[in-house]
Amino acid sequence: MGTGTEPDGSSRSDEEWERFLRESVAGVADAPKEPSARARDVAKRLRAEPGAGLEGWRSYTPARPKRRTGWYVVGLLASLVLLVVALAPGRIVDLFAGADSPAEATQRPTMDEPFRGSPAASWASGAAGITVPEARAVGWMSAAEVEQALARSRDFLVASGLDRGVLQGESPEKAIALINPHQKDVQDLLKTAFRTPSEKNDPLLLFSRFQPSRTRLVGDVVKTRGQLTYREGERGALQVTADVTFVYPVTRADAGGDEIVRTIVRRELVLSWDDPAEVITEPGTFSIVSHKYHMTNGGCGALTGYFTPPFGTDRRADGAGREVDPYDRSAPVGRGESSGDECGKATRS
Question: What is the model's pLDDT at position 96?
Answer without folding.
Answer: 44
